[in-house]
Structure formats: C-alpha cells, structure tokens
Amino acid sequence: MLILKLSWKNIWRNPIRSGVVICAVLIGTWAGIFIIAFSTGMTKQYIKNQLDTYVGHIQFHNPQYTQENLPEYYIQNPDSLIKQLKTKPFVKNIAAHSEVQGLAMSSANTFGVSITGIDTTEEKKVSTVYQDIDKGTYLSGNIRNPVIIGQELADKLDLRLRSKLVMNFQDIHNEISAGAFRVVGIFSTNNSAFDERNVFVLKNDLDRLLGQQGLIHELVLRVDDFKKAPDYTKQLQNQYPDLQVQSWGDIAPELRYADISMDYSMYIFMAVLILALTLGIVNTMLMAVMERTKELGMLMAVGMNRPRVFNMILTETFYLIFVAVPAGLLLGWLTVLLTSHSGIDLSAFSKGLAAYGLSTVIYPELDAIYYLNISIMMAVAAILAAVYPAWKALKLKPVKAIRKL
Amino acid sequence: MFYLKLAWRNIWRNKRRTLITTFSIVLAVVLSSFTRSMQIGTYDQMIQNSAGMYTGYLQVHQNGYWDKPTLDNSFATSDSLIKKIASTDHVTQIVPRLQSYALAAGEKKSRAAMIVGFDPQAERSLSDPEDHMFQGEYITSDTARAVLITEGLASYLNLTVGDSLVLLGQGYHGISAAGVYPIHGIVKYGIPEMNRAMVFLPIGEAQYFFGAYGQLAAASITVDDPHAVNDVQKEIQNKLDGPFEVMTWRQLMPELVQAIEADSGSGMIILLVLYIVVGFGILGTILMMTAERQYELGVMLSIGTSRFRLGSMLLLELLLLALVGIIVGFAGSVPLVWYFHLNPIHFTGDAAAAMRQYGMEPIMPFSTDPTIIMGQAMIILSITAAISFYPMWHAHKLNPIKAMRG
C-alpha cells in the first residue's frame, strides 16, 4: 500500500519524465490504430471498387460452362433459381447474363473477346461500368444491335463511336454465327485488361444470335457484405450442388492476393512498430532510473529493501500505462472517426492511385476488436519494457549512488 | 574549440548515458531502413515478376509498333543490329520475338490465340517455357515445324501432345497465314492471362508462317541492373540510327507503375508514423539526459559559462552522438537487410496458396540497395538534429539556483 502511494507521488513529482513515457506509449497506441485503420480502409476500397466494376460478389455458372466455355452449357431453369435466390435475406441484387467467347473483327485487326448480353436496368445494380462511359452513351434500345467496348479494345481495333464491329462466335448448336454491331459507347474502367477483353451488348440481341431467347450463362449476385461472400458461397454451393458457385476471391485471385498481402505487411509493420516503441520506452525508463540514482540510493540507504524498489518502479510504469493506453485509444478512435468522414487526401504522394482503381482520398475504418488487440499488445510491450530498467535499479550500490553528482 | 573538447569529454564521462542515447538513434536508423527496404523490395519483386515473366526490362520496336501492334509495323533484323544492342552496358540477353494474333483450332473448337515466334535459346531468360513444361518436350531448334501451347488453350481445344494444331490468321502486309503444326509440348503458367491462349512457334518457322522473312516485332532486353534501364534506353536509342522506338518497362507496363505509385502513397504514411514513434524514442532519451544533468549545468552557469556556449556544447555533444549513431545504424542495417534478402520471410497457408496461384513466389523480399539505408540515415540525422535544439533551449531557460538544489 505504501508502495502504491509512493509510486503515485513519484509520478507527479517529475511531470516531464512522466509526460515523456506517457506520450511514447500514447503515440504508439495511436499509431498502431491509425495505420491499421488506414490500410484496412485502403484495401477494402480497392477491392470494393474492383468488385463494383465487374466481378460482383458471387457468380453462378453451369459447371461445364466454366470448363468448356461453350454457349450450349447454359443454366437450366434459371427463373425458379432466381426466384429462390431473391428470397434470401443477404442477396441484394441479381443480374443475369448470356455470354459467349468470340472474335471481334474490324477492318484494322482481329481480337478475341468475351461478349456479354445484359439487361441494362438489372446490370446497373451490380456493375458500375455505366459510370465509366467516356464517349457516347450506355446501351439503349434506340439503335439496332448496339455494343459498348473498352477504350483498349477500341485502340487495338481502331474503332470509334458509330463504327461497325463484326463478331464471330459459336451458337448453342455449335454452328458459327456472326453479328454486326454498332459502337454506341466506349468505357474506360480502372482495369485495362478488362477493357481490352470485354464487350457488352443487349441480352435480346445476343440471345437471338445464339439461337434461343432467355439464355442465362451467368448469374452475378451482390450481397450485403463482400467479406462474407465466401461463407455465403459455401452455403449456396451446398444448396445447389449441380451449379458452380464462386465467390469473388475464386473469380479474381489477384484481388484475394491484394487482400492477403496487405494483411501480411501490416503484421510485419506492427512488429516493427512495437519493437520501436518497446525499445523507446526501455531507453526512456533507463534514463529515468539514471536520473534518479541519488534518490534511489537514498531510499536504499534509509532501509528500503530491493524488492520494494523494484516494485515501486514497476508500479510507476503501470500507472503511466494506464493513463497512456486509454488516452491513445481515444485519440486513435477520434482520428479514425474524423478521417473516416473527411478522408485523407493522398494526391500529393501519388498520381497513380486513381488509375489503379483507388480513390486519391482514403477513408480509414477499423473493427472494434482491433482496438482491444492493439491495447493489449501495447500494454504487454510497455510492461516488458519496464522490467529491465527496474532490474537495473536493483543493481545500484547505495553509497556510490548517493555520492554521485 | 574548447567547447568541442568539453563536449567530447562529456561524451566519455558517462558511457552508459552515451550508449543509451546512441542506441536510440541506431535503432531508429535500423527500423526505418528495414521498413523501407521491405517496401522497395516488394516493388522490385513486382517489377521482376512482370518484366521478367514476359515483357523484359526494355523493348526495341519499329517506331509506332507499340501504339499499333500489327505485323506491318515489324522491322527487319540483322546481325549488326543485334550486335549493337548486345554491346550496350548492362544488357544480358536479347530476346527476339515475332508475335501476332491468329485463330488456333483443334478438332471442334477454336480460339483467338497469341502466336509468339520465339528463339528457344534466348527465351529461357524471360517466359522460359522450358521451365514451365507441363507435358511433352521443349523445342530446341529455331526452325522446327512444331509448337508449344499453353495448358489453358490445350484444355479448351481438347488437344494433347502429338495432336495437330491449326493456325489461321493474317500475315505480313495482309497475306493470309495458315498452317498445321504438331504439338510438341504443353506449358503451364501461373498467371491466368499468360496461361489462357498462347502458342510458341520457333522464330524461323513463325517468320515463314507470317510471311515476314527476317522480321521481328519486338526485341525484348534483359539487364543485370534494373535501376539502370534509363541509361540503357538512352544508349541503345543513340546507337540505333533508324526508325526505332526503345521503351522501358515504365512505358511498356503503365499499370505496374501506377500500382507502385498507388502503394508508395500509403508506404509514405506508414513511414511517417514510424518516424514519429522512433523520433519520440530519441526525444525521450534526450529529455531524460538533460534532466539528469541539471546539477552539472547549474554549476557551469553559476561559474560564468554563457548560456549560448552551454547550449552549443550540448548541441555539439548530441550531434557527435547522432553522427556515431547513424554510422553504426548504417553498418548494422546493411547486414540485417542482406540477411532478410537472402532468407526472406515466407508466407504460409492461404496467403502462400493465393500467391502461387498468381505465379508469384510467396516471400516478402528485401531490397539491398544501399541508397535506401543512406536516405533513411539522413532522415534520422535531420530528426535528431531538430530534437537536439531542445537541450539548447533548456540551457537558455535554466535557473542555476533551482537546478543545483534539484
């Protein structure tokens, strides 16, 4: 009890010293929270942008279609499937596509493309390509056989607005079919490989050329939270064993890779940060013990035993941590709260963000559980950091210590 | 001069204090170098993965080929041309290619595929089909009438080793190109775009197939030092008099440059936060040091040392420590970074699987470029120098009587 009181008084006796230790732990806690929130916000935003543009969250195919890529492998009885899916609480939107791989030919060149037949009202709910139209308009029924293509494909094939584009492909009876389309719009998303390889036409037009109306090769679903898509996928796969159900991570492995590699570098960086912080506290506390050599020597000389000196210094550190960690948490939480609304403008650092599919403004976000994890890690690091200086204090020789200037 | 001497003696007077302060500076240099080397190493790996996988660090084409990659924009190659490029500093290999799209057909199905006329020896340093053989055997002659196809194309067309592949397309200046080739081997790449639809045809046969005798679409170049590409580009451009464009990976793969730029923005923020933390570690030790020497400073003031001189002495001491700290920090960072360069951190579990699936080695690479560590050392030096003004200010404010009573 005496020790508790003594430690408490010691802390207030030298506010600068206490302030330095409190600030070090506070800044460490704040930095940990901020960095994790910042990176989480950035990765999530990147993945979300990509998913919104073209992948969707979950896709349904006929399993043979994914293997052979032939239009004859369409989804059987799609209407009842869609009706059932729509009753699921986590499913937000569904779009149905007919799709075929074909050759796009212009007078200048020939290129392999994936042709997707879409229903424009449904499609706008699962894909933001309609917002990326640079020239011309989105698909509409005013012109016969309209098509929208990516800027990259337009360059490759030397196509402009209102150019004619002939596409060759196999129909559902494996006969060669061809259609002449008119370019009504050119889009430019942040994924140029996508822009090079995908064209969109009206579903009715494509179905007619494929030889059957109402064909569906692909269902694209949006769910309430894309992070939960892998779980929903398992659930749906069990319910529909005859169909192939894939989540965004299976469809676009590069996005899953971005997600995971970000996590990894975060862990490594947290380790570096904690090391920096722990050693920073050790140094400050060591200096603090040295500064108090005379005082500690005096305490020992008047009869305070070594375990008590040790306990006193440890208790002091505890007090400091119990001020610093909650304050750091509060500050971190406030920073995240503030920046998650206003965003952090990174345009000064890099020009490439927008083109890469990231906004130049990052909105940090963090799940509640991380606050707990970070505070525990910080507290453990700080306590470990306190043991060494306290142990150093034990080694003092009272007589020498008092003599010291 | 006198104060320099005094500062020097002060440093040695209390070795432990000196050690602790220096250590905090060394630590700052080591940790920031570690973090930055990891960031740069990741970018180098991204570049290596993309450039070394297919594109090469530089490419030479006929002017205008990159904007309009058709066979009509190919160029006539010659030994003297290749020799000129090969004699440039840093160039390790020239990989000649003649590539264009054509329809590849099996018995029932067909797909548009990229036909790559390749040199079986030179190609080993880039896409290296030999190392990615899945079935069958590599082609070693550059005039063999046979093809290698990617696994994605083989399974789509339902073809296997020994079957025939029909190629149909457009050759040089619009002549029609058609041929039937036995499949000698199947190659498998981790990157989906590469695995999807590629046909490797020996370059001599490809020139015959496309009717482009002695022509190349592109000469890809590998270098021993990726950081020297700009110099290599200039030198080759100067040597080749003619309508040639020499492009570096920055121009060939703008997406990669964007990806790196996007990431370096967040990398900067992370470094900034790290500087705050290590800077605070240094500040803490220096604050404590000043507090510990209250008595001594009080005595000096009362016997008549001017405040300015006292402050300069403290500043000098810290700058000496900072200098030692960053030199030791530099010396310590180099082996650390090399250690992690040679024994990189391995990814495990799902992460490793996802990376392998994407054709990347699941490791966290480190760059050993000494200029990174040098740069970090300079930044830490400036941070320490800025902090060192605190003791000076403290000496300016010090009340000698209070200090000595302390």
Structural summary, described in words:
The complex is a heterodimer of chains A (405) and B (406). Chain A has helices spanning 2-13, 15-55, 63-68, 78-86, 120-126, 151-157, 192-197, 203-210, 229-239, 248-251, 253-291, 293-301, 306-342, 353-356, 368-394, 398-403, and strands spanning 58-61, 91-105, 110-118, 133-136, 146-150, 164-170, 176-187, 198-202, 218-223, 244-247, 344-345, 361-362. With 405 residues, chain A is α+β, with helices and mostly antiparallel strands. Chain A has two domains: 2-51 and 256-396, no CATH class; 63-216, no CATH class. In chain A, helix 1 (2-13) packs across helix 13 (306-342), helix 2 (15-55) runs parallel beside helix 13 (306-342) and helix 2 packs antiparallel against helix 15 (368-394). Chain A is elongated and about 100 Å long. The model of chain A has no long low-confidence stretch (mean pLDDT 84). By secondary structure, chain B is of the alpha+beta class. Chain B folds into two domains: 2-51 and 257-405, no CATH class; 64-242, no CATH class. Chain B contains 15 helices and 14 strands. A six-stranded mixed β-barrel of chain B has the order 3-4-9-6-8-7. A two-stranded antiparallel sheet of chain B has the order 2-10. A two-stranded antiparallel ribbon of chain B has the order 13-14. Chain B is elongated. At the A-B interface, helix 2, strand 3, helix 11 and helix 14 of A face helix 2, strand 4, helix 9 and helix 12 of B.
